[in-house]
Write a structure and sequence with these properties.
The chain has about 170 residues and is α/β, with parallel strands linked by helices. The chain has one domain: 3-Layer(aba) Sandwich (Pyruvate-ferredoxin Oxidoreductase, domain 3), CATH 3.40.920.10. It is about 40% helix and about 20% strand. A five-stranded mixed sheet has the order 2-3-1-4-5. Helix 3 links the parallel strand 4 and strand 5.
């Protein structure tokens, strides 16, 4: 059961990678899951040259009342990297004591193998393990976002959830 403080605190998440990896889909699902769970949500995205493999960033913020779609610099609670080369550029966004999910990226690549289209679903499963959002809210968001391959996306989502041994939030 969540405490009242879970709803009051604003949580800041940064998803990033390159165009075509599903960064924007992952952030959309995260935002919808938080919304489904009754949180106030703001989202912002920077697409660069996304169609040509350029940098893509998306911030998701949720809590009782979120006024801005962007957190202060260096105040991200959870950093979700989908492309290794982008990591050094954005690690400074993570707050001291924040959750860096970079170590899960190698596991994600091993699990999805050649089916890279599911990398974002796996990493969403990892992210979901650290957030006070109900599983049903995540599943509804996945169903509402993906019109195709919902079962495969859910399968990789659950595989990502199982990778997390200790939950922080």
């Amino acid at each position: 059961m969540r405490s009242v403080s879970d709803k009051i605190k604003t949580t800041n998440i940064l998803f990033f990678g390159i165009g075509g990896q599903g960064v924007l889909s992952a952030s959309e699902i995260c935002a919808l899951a938080a919304l489904n769970d009754g949180y106030h949500v703001k989202k912002s995205e920077v697409k660069g040259m996304a169609q040509r493999g350029g940098s893509v960033e998306s911030y998701v913020r949720f809590g009782a009342c979120v006024l801005s779609p962007l957190p202060e610099q260096g105040k991200v609670d959870i950093l979700v990297c989908l492309y290794e080369s982008e990591y050094p550029r954005l690690i400074s966004e993570l707050r001291k004591g924040g959750i860096d999910l970079y170590s899960y990226l190698t596991k994600a690549h091993k699990v999805v193998g050649e089916q890279k289209i599911f990398l974002n679903a796996f990493m969403l499963g990892v992210v979901s393990s650290f957030l006070p959002i109900k599983e049903d809210s995540w599943l509804k968001a996945i169903n509402d976002t993906f019109s195709r391959k919902q079962d495969k996306n859910k399968e990789y989502f659950y595989q990502g959830r199982r990778q997390v041994v200790s939950k922080v939030i």
